[in-house]
Write a structure and sequence with these properties.
This protein is mostly helical. The chain contains 21 helices and no strands.
């Protein structure tokens, strides 16, 4: 019989306490320059791993290493890491080729002032959906949000809120987003299937956000001159976007997109062909942290599971959940709680994913649905965290242009993250789930 010990969850508790505790200390008490992000996640994860190794007294060190090796040998973890690195190569190539700037300028060229803020939201949605990175989208669009605020007279907090909202749309949905990759791989479903289910859940939130932005910003002035664009630089984005939506293998479409971005960058003179390796390296190296973190989390997860921690947690959830809807709410609350502690939605999904999968299997929840819920609630929470990377990017970008604004001031204008969570809750409560192909186990509570 599988052992069940809540004490086996100690390494996860240590991580949350250290990460959140020192983050609050640095950000709000000591007010250090780096604040919350002065606490590097990988360092705290290694401490948690040490706790897991020391805590397990049933195995020798070599046996613990073997358990960790089995955890990282999971094909989902391997594929996840490979996709991270491939997506990094594409991001590096398309960024160096000027694709982000051209795409932004293309949209702004045809953007009427009276729908400027709503249009800014749509631009951010498109860019983030294509790039798969909310932070990169915010970094690319913050200067334009400031410009639109200056020209139209609309609140800077409102314009930045539109950008962050759109960035979270793509962060949640993009086929090359690390959150999508993590959610899909941990739940064992196909990206295209998760995308389709996820899309219909968040579409009402996106439409309502756009309508709200239009209604509260009537009569904006026309925009001034924007930068130049080159349609060639936009093409790699379009290829990756539509190829991914069409269901082309993620590795194939990323490799094609990367090759096209390199070709465009060289052809347009954005960088010499001799810099191709450096361009790719810059993008790939940006994914090192999340790749290594995924590996260390796999180590911790393997030890915690072997010690009975996950089984005990599932039992605890079972004691409080009686229905399939309750199980979905439990999964959602789990990933939100971890994201609050880590301020990183990808890490939250990686940590919560194995537990969510166990719950889903016990209650017969469709893997596409559990993957969507993980990604939606992690992205919704991440989008409104005042100490999260997304809002800090927005605040930092505005500061670089001479504007001082607090991340807390932007939160009231983050319509999409709030509406996304509300839409998902409505989906859980009122839209039935036919369940996965696996039947609910005999020991699971009846839905």
């Amino acid at each position: 019989m599988e052992q069940k010990r809540l004490s086996a969850l100690l390494p996860i508790g240590v991580f949350l306490i250290l990460y959140l505790g020192f983050g609050i200390l640095f950000e709000y008490v000591m007010k250090t320059e780096d604040g919350f992000y002065g606490v590097q996640a990988i360092v705290v994860f290694l401490i948690a791993l040490l706790v897991a190794v020391v805590q397990d007294r049933r195995h020798t060190f070599n046996e613990k290493v073997a358990i960790m090796a089995r955890g990282i040998a999971d094909d989902n973890i391997i594929i996840m890491c490979l996709v991270f690195l491939t997506a990094g190569a594409f991001s590096g190539a398309i960024g160096a080729a000027g694709g982000a700037d051209s795409t932004v300028n293309l949209f702004l060229t045809f953007l009427p002032g009276k729908v400027a803020v709503g249009g800014l939201f749509l631009i951010s949605c498109f860019i983030s959906l294509s790039m798969g990175s909310s932070c990169a989208t915010i970094a690319a669009l913050t200067s334009f949000a400031v410009g639109i605020s200056e020209v139209t007279g609309f609140s800077l907090a409102l314009c930045l809120g539109a950008v962050v909202s759109g960035a979270m749309f793509g962060d949640n949905l993009s086929m090359i987003s690390d959150t999508t990759i993590a959610a899909v791989r941990t739940q064992g479903c196909e990206m295209k299937d998760k995308f389709r289910m996820n899309f219909w859940i968040v579409l009402p939130a996106a439409v309502l956000t756009f309508v709200i932005l239009i209604l509260i910003t009537p009569g904006g002035d026309t925009l001034g001159e924007v930068g130049e664009y080159n349609i060639l630089q936009v093409i790699p984005y379009l290829v990756v976007l539509f190829g991914a939506i069409a269901g082309v293998n993620v590795f194939v479409i990323l490799i094609i997109g990367t090759a096209m971005a390199l070709g465009v960058g060289i052809y347009t003179g954005m960088f010499p062909w001799t810099d191709s390796f450096l361009v790719l390296f810059d993008g790939i190296s940006a994914m090192y942290d999340i790749t290594v973190i995924s590996m260390v989390v796999a180590f911790i997860g393997a030890l915690v599971k072997d010690a009975g921690g996950i089984a005990a947690l599932i039992d605890l959830i079972h004691s409080r959940i009686r229905t399939k809807k309750g199980a979905q709410l439990g999964i959602s609350a789990l990933v939100v709680g971890v994201d609050i502690a880590t301020a990183n939605n990808t890490i939250a999904i990686v940590m919560s994913g194995p537990i969510a999968k166990e719950i889903s299997q016990e209650f017969g929840i469709d893997p596409r649905r559990s993957a969507s819920l993980l990604d939606i609630f992690a992205s919704a929470m991440q989008g409104i965290l005042p100490y999260g990377a997304q809002l800090l990017y927005a605040v930092g970008g505005a500061a670089a242009m001479g504007y001082t604004i607090s991340s807390v001031r932007i939160i009231p204008y983050l319509f999409y993250p709030f509406l996304m969570a509300i839409s998902a809750l409505v989906f859980i409560l009122f839209v039935g789930d036919k369940g996965s192909k696996r039947q609910v186990t005999e020991t699971a509570p009846q839905a």
